[in-house]
Amino acid sequence: MLKKKKREVYALGQHISMSADKARRVIDQIRGRSYEETLLILELMPYRACYPIFKLVYSAAANANYNMGSNEVNLLISKAEVHEGPTRKKFKPRARGRSSPIKRSTCHLTIEMKDISLKDKDVEINSLKKNLDGKRKKSSGGLWDKK
């Protein structure tokens, strides 16, 4: 029995202390790009959100290398998502014994990468399966059928 190889690998970053909107601004730029191009973009962008996203992309590539044995050249960012996390609430002391609230927003990042080279292998496996199934259906007698 031929097995399909899993083509997608992901990395999760949870409770990252930045707002989801600021992270989305960077994530929208890298979605659908190759691994090497993404690293270049993240190094050159001037936003604070780039560093945690850079670490996540690097981690997803390491996961792909370890789990699937894929090369970084063949990796593509298939899905990149940002969700809002819980808001940390603190109080800052003010004049006359009062306090004012401080809200620190957090976000959850998900980066999913897929290997482009495995797509071609899956197509070859599927075409082999179809050919084998077609040959089995045509012959009714097994070994004794001759053409």
UniProtKB/TrEMBL annotation:
Database matches in InterPro entries: Ribosomal_uL22, Ribosomal_uL22_bac/chlpt-type, Ribosomal_uL22_bac/org-type, Ribosomal_uL22_CS, Ribosomal_uL22_sf
Domain of life where this protein originates: Eukaryota
Biological processes, Gene Ontology terms: translation
Keyword Calcium among record annotations: no
Signal peptide: none
Subcellular locations according to the entry: Plastid, Chloroplast
Gene3D superfamilies reported for this sequence: Ribosomal protein L22/L17
Record keywords: Chloroplast, Plastid, Ribonucleoprotein, Ribosomal protein, RNA-binding, rRNA-binding
GO cellular-component term (any): chloroplast
Tagged with keyword Mitochondrion: no
Chief place where the protein resides: plastid
Molecular function as annotated in GO: rRNA binding; structural constituent of ribosome
General function of this protein: This protein binds specifically to 23S rRNA.
Assembly, per entry: Part of the 50S ribosomal subunit.
PANTHER family in the cross-refs: CHLOROPLAST 50S RIBOSOMAL PROTEIN L22-RELATED (PTHR13501), LARGE RIBOSOMAL SUBUNIT PROTEIN UL22M (PTHR13501:SF10)
Family the UniProt entry places it in: Belongs to the universal ribosomal protein uL22 family.
Listed name of the protein: Large ribosomal subunit protein uL22c
